[in-house]
TrEMBL record:
One Pfam family matching this protein: 4HBT_2
Keywords of this entry: Hydrolase
Record-linked InterPro entries: 4-hydroxybenzoyl-CoA_TE (IPR050563), HotDog_dom_sf (IPR029069)
Domain of life of the native organism: Bacteria
Record-given protein name: Acyl-CoA thioesterase
UniProt EC number: 3.1.2.-
Length: 139
């Protein structure tokens, strides 16, 4: 199952050519990730109270089609949990209403212990312990 959120491209998000500003693609991914966590039962307060914070280590965008003001898109989000790794990945697709893929975003992230400032050894287990619906996280 792939989680998704509908988003309308707003005029104030555009660059001087009338395209969606490059930084906003990252914001769309971030918004979708938090909505997925919330749907899985992990809200921001619960996450912070766990003493662990999510950290982005790398974010890559492949632009495929332009987005302009008024375009309606669906932003998907799926987790990837490499076995034995301290990092995990989010995979996003930004899809226009006609099914055209506008962009792909891949984010490498970690779960950082806020006291030791180190990545936790098993981020999947940490997320599983917090989630009410771990299946939404691919767990």
């Amino acid at each position: 199952m792939t989680f998704s959120v509908p988003i309308l491209v707003r005029g104030y998000e555009l660059d001087t050519q009338g395209h969606l500003n490059h930084a906003v693609y990252h914001q769309y991914g971030e918004h979708t990730r938090w909505e997925l966590l919330r749907a899985a039962g992990i809200d921001l307060d619960k996450f912070i109270a766990s003493g662990v914070g999510a950290v982005v280590l790398e974010s890559t965008i492949k632009y495929k089609r332009e987005l302009r003001g008024g375009d309606e898109v669906t932003v998907t989000c799926a987790f990837e949990w490499p076995e034995g790794s301290k990092v995990f990945r989010f995979h996003h697709r930004i899809i226009k209403l006609d099914g055209t893929e506008a962009a792909e975003i891949t984010v490498v992230a970690g779960a950082m212990d806020l006291t030791t400032r180190r990545l936790v050894a098993d981020p999947a287990e940490h997320f599983r312990s917090l989630a009410e619906h771990p299946e939404l996280l691919g767990l």
